[in-house]
């Protein structure tokens, strides 16, 4: 073999080896690019889903008009009086778009059996009432559909909401009832 043959033989080996290296280097780059692209698609998809769920309407949330956010203490003593009233002036408030009255309620005593009357009055001289029976000694969430107040036909001009504890609706002559987070729910 002469030098030229040896040179060609070495060049052939070298060129075959270098072409194999180039092919091997392309494959990892392709997989790397595919991996980066799939991660990017996954991140964008998760961000879109997260945005949708964050801004979609959650059935556990409510749209409400809060009337009294703090707890109200109705302290009754039926010695001279026959009833105790906590009244919320509504000032001709339009409640026609609302579906329910919601509030939390509890009594201070363990033994007392108290029922409370809830009354609405309108600017059209309409009145309607509902009773909340057996007020517990632990906080209880109450939600009353406004449709249950049968005596009111027009909810566009509401004057007053009253929470009333009456002597004949309480076993004991004195006690305390708490009403908290009074609101109208859509």
Folded structure, characterized:
The mean pLDDT is 81. Helices cover 28% and strands 41% of the residues. By secondary structure, the protein is α+β, with helices and mostly antiparallel strands. Strands 1, 2, 4, 7 and 9 form a 5-stranded antiparallel sheet that branches. The N and C termini lie far apart (98 Å).
Primary descriptors:
Jelly Rolls; 4-stranded antiparallel sheet; 186 residues; 5-stranded antiparallel sheet; 28% helix; 1 helix
Count of domain modules = 2
- Secondary-structure element string: HEEEEEEEEE
Overall pLDDT, averaged? 81
Sheet/helix structural class? alpha+beta
Count of DSSP strands: 9
Strand content: 35-45%
Largest sheet: 5 strands, antiparallel
> How helical, in percent, are the residues?
25-40%
> Under the CATH scheme, which architecture of the largest domain would be assigned?
Sandwich
CATH class of the largest domain: Mainly Beta
Low-confidence stretches: none
Structure annotation, total helices: 1
**First CA to last CA: what distance?**
98 Å
Q: Name the overall outline.
A: rod-shaped
Q: What is the radius of gyration computed over CA atoms, rounded to a whole number of angstroms?
A: 37 Å
According to CATH, what is the topology of the largest domain?
Jelly Rolls
Describe the secondary-structure layout.
Blueprint: H1 3-55, E1 64-68, E2 72-77, E3 83-93, E4 100-107, E5 114-122, E6 127-132, E7 140-145, E8 158-170, E9 174-185
Antiparallel strand pairs: 1-9, 2-9, 3-8, 4-7, 4-9, 5-6, 5-8
